[in-house]
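User: Predict the full complex structure for these chains.
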Amino acid sequence: MKSAVIVFPGSNCDRDIAVALEQVTGRKPAMVWHRDSALPDGTDFIALPGGFSYGDYLRSGAMAARSPIMAAVRDAAGRGVPVIGICNGFQVLTEAGLLPGALMRNAGLSFVCRPVPLKVENSQSLFTCGYEAGETVLFPVAHHDGNYQADEATLDRLEDEGRVAFRYLDSVNGSARQIAGILNDTGNVLGLMPHPERAVEAAHGATDGRRLFEGLLETVA
Amino acid sequence: MKARVFVTLKPGVLDPQGKAIHHALEGLGFAGVNDVRAGKLIELDLADGTSDGAIEEMCRKLLANTVIENFRIERLEDA
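Assistant: Here is the predicted structure of the two-chain assembly.
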């Protein structure tokens, strides 16, 4: 698997995802700067990492979503290349219009930073085929703007089409229907607030995130 | 030429910050505040002759997230 990690000014989980990808795939991902206009040839997986791109100015992910590299990401996503956006990466994907809805300030106004249990709602996607449907996994969250909101029609459509990938077991940030992660309509773009890349080795306290990357490797490679 | 862009949350979109401000106002003893909604004011210093359409495009493409926000443009011709 030839992966690329997009690095924005203010990304801070780019190295976490790079380490996780290297551990699972045996291959270092290309680190692609946001000012670049093209992805390395043959890129077959793209990760938008967590962090605080552009200091969350204007809205979380708003500036990053308009970076030069995003045209190439959009193009690759359109060709079916799997794209994952974690935390700030999820915010970037919604701001870029690659995923529906928006991520707003947490309902409790506090930054939430702790491991949270999630229910795997869809185990048929590229990203979740390493899990059982209905399984509970533990991923850490660390965000201020993770309150997922969309209009009722969009939420119904996401539910009906099996595009809710992960759901919080408890209310974490006020997200509509406790949604933690969603897929696009073609199933090759996943955005989620929790951090699977920070749950890949025993020292992290949980290893449930590892299967996301292992499953992906199996499907992509 | 200057213009102001007011970005506000769409009606019905939950506004946790507005709620917190509301609570704080009540805590300070201000009675009679029915609701608070927080938004943004963006001031643009523009080349003369910038069209309404261009400003609107700026709003749609970047300044507002039209999934959750509305915007209103106010031109200040002589500012």
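DSSP finds two helices and three strands in chain B.
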